[in-house]
């Protein structure tokens, strides 16, 4: 994926700088062309000579070469790069990047880079979780930068916790995924989160869905080039990728209306939302008083996935989810059939670490052709990658490369 790509690697002054030697070797092995820019402090952790030898290019530290006065242009570097990877990014550099401070070549290049920026923070655990660092990282995300989250483990300080720079293989996988444009030109609809069914102006019937799975799928597909419409019930999450258009809804009926309207112009739909199956027959205009004797009459909502299953034409792929507590495989197969899905992703609440609110999930994909594929327990982001890979394989099997013209 990285063949011929220009990767600019920015090294700031943290102990994890030593890992960048291995990282640059991996990038070169993948066929990338690499240039390195370092801060002055980074030179104390790894020598420019090492990095120049591995990257096969002179390393840049200063605004000009003190020997001959030759100018090192941050603008040219920014233009040369297809991606700018800052690894390790210390708390100090992350803070400066968030604030727009440009007091070295690495930082001026950050401000002038037009390419996507990837930031792999590395610091001690207390620094990593400090509100100032959290805020700075959020600011970088709001600039559109991709944060390659630090990993948990033993730290240089001897403490254990989150703050280690991601492993070189993980960082390369992020870049690979970025340049993987398998879904380029493909329109995907993803539903996510819960729906809220109002009882009166202050109360609703809802569920525990956090939306994490749906958002992770939307992000993964968007990163691989898809144009994603994310129809989201109320969640605390915000999608970060520019290819994602978020449509906010509250109730099952609002989600139904948006899906039915938008599905015809999509190639793929992934139904992750935990849609309420029942809604109050009547919404009270005023708050129901405590003293009232209350029975709420409910009526069934429309089944969105089933409706899209009826609307679906041959060049569309429709995927659903089944969250089950018992008789899992049987129930999931029944949903797959009755909703006319191409495949269904089953997760069982009986698996510890699966389900609402958790950051991990264990899934089985059941295909309309009867095959079952089981996956291990993984972070939801990795589950999203497995589902994206399954969709890709499915679409290639079914139609070869799907293109806009097939719509
Ligand atoms: N779904 C939907 N619209 C509904 C209910 C469910 O689109 N009104 C979708 C979900 O997004 C999911 C799939 O259908 O992709 C299965 O949802 P689930 O809640 O597991 O099952 P239900 O069909 O609601 O059946 P039951 O609650 O009886 O298990």
Overall pLDDT score: 91
Strand element count: 21
Number of structural units classed as domains? 2
Backbone CA Rg = 24 Å
Helix percent reads 25-40%
CATH topology of the largest domain: Rossmann fold
Write the CATH architecture name of the largest domain. Answer: 3-Layer(aba) Sandwich
Question: Which shape, going by the Cα principal axes?
Answer: elongated
User: CATH class of the largest domain, please?
Assistant: Alpha Beta
Outline the biggest β-sheet. 8 strands, mixed
The secondary-structure class comes to alpha/beta
N-end to C-end Cα span: 28 Å
What's the name of the CATH homologous superfamily of the largest domain? CoaB-like
Total helices: the number is 13
Poorly predicted spans: 402-407
Instruction: Catalogue the ligands.
Output: cytidine-5'-triphosphate
Strand order of the largest sheet: 12-11-8-13-16-17-19-20
Structure description:
This protein has 407 residues and is of the alpha/beta class. It folds into 2 domains: 6-179, Rossmann fold (3-Layer(aba) Sandwich), CATH 3.40.50.1950; 187-406, CoaB-like (Rossmann fold, 3-Layer(aba) Sandwich), CATH 3.40.50.10300. It is 33% helix and 23% strand. The chain is built from 13 helices and 21 strands. The strands form 6 sheets. An 8-stranded mixed sheet has the order 12-11-8-13-16-17-19-20, sandwiched between helices. Strands 2-1-3-4-5 form a 5-stranded parallel sheet, sandwiched between helices. Strands 6-7 form a two-stranded antiparallel ribbon. Strand 1, helix 1 and strand 2 form a beta-alpha-beta unit. The longest helix is centred in the C-terminal third of the chain and has 20 residues, at 380-399. Mean pLDDT is 91; it is low at 402-407. The protein binds cytidine-5'-triphosphate. The site of cytidine-5'-triphosphate has 15 residues, from helix 11 and strand 16.
